[in-house]
Amino acid sequence: DIGTVNNDLLEKDVNLDVANRLESKLLQAGYTTFMTRRGDETLSNADRYNYCNSQRAAILISVHHNGSTDSNLDYTSALYMKKSDVNLAEIVANKVSGQLGIPSNGISRFASGVLLKANMPATISEAFFLTNNNEYNLIKTTDRLDQEANALLSAIQTYFGN
Predict the structure, then answer these.
(1) Closest CA to 58 of 120, 116, 132
(2) E strands within 88-141?
(3) 143 Cβ partners below 8 Å, 6+ apart?
(4) What's the Cα-to-Cα distance from 19 to each of 15, 63, 72, rounded to whole Å?
(5) Contact partners, residue 38, CB within 8 Å, separation at least 6
(6) What pLDDT, on the 0 to 100 scale, is given for residue 1?
(7) How far apart are CA 47 and CA 155, in angstroms?
(8) Quick one: which of 157, 138, 135, 131 has its CA closest to 69?
(9) Which string of DSSP letters, residue by residue, matches 68-96?
(10) Full DSSP string of 3-36
(11) Tens of pLDDT, residues 91-109
(12) How confident is the model at residue 86 (pLDDT cuts 50, 70, 90)?
């Protein structure tokens, strides 16, 4: 699934780019990481949560970007399903919003198999609207995706108390 699109930017590619940047930062900080995909491959939600569960991951963060027909709409949000997900989702939404300098729409309960069936606290990060004209320009002309990876790193460090 390519996800949302803005000109030449496909959500699936932006998601993987941010996840790869985040993995690098986490490894440099001494964390162990598990990536559900490393390239342009299609995985079901069951593939994702089963892999994370089998690795006994401490947390699961699924990197995504929102889309809208309104190219001016932009905010951060994080999705959760289980009570054990709430703290992680709140930290992710707050850190990403604060470090990217865009409003937070907070957290929302969302019935996703990845969130529901993960044995660990899990969240889906919707950092910004990929369809937003300003975000498109920031991705093309600045280190916006690195900023997002740094925000997620900060969220993880906060979650684990480092």
Answers:
(1) 120
(2) 104-109, 122-129
(3) none
(4) 6, 7, 25
(5) 20
(6) 75
(7) 25
(8) 131
(9) -S-TT---EEEEE-SGGGHHHHHHHHHHH
(10) --EETTEEHHHHHHHHHHHHHHHHHHTT-----S
(11) 999 999 999 999 999 999 9
(12) very high
Amino acid letter for position 52: C
Beta-carbon contacts of 128 under 8 Å, excluding residues fewer than 6 positions away, are 65, 66, 74, 75, 76, 100, 102, 135, 148
In this structure, what token pair is assigned to residue 112?
């996703």
Query: Could you give the CA distance from residue 33 to residue 16 in angstroms, rounded to a whole number?
Result: 14
Task: Report the greatest alpha carbon distance in the chain.
Answer: 41
42 pLDDT exceeds 90?
A: no
The pLDDT value given to residue 103: 98
Among candidate residues 34, 152, 60, 37, the one with its CA nearest the CA of residue 114: 60
Contacts with 65 (C-beta within 8 Å, 6 or more apart), sequence order? 3, 4, 11, 14, 15, 126, 127, 128, 129, 130
Structure-token pair, residue 56: 């006994």
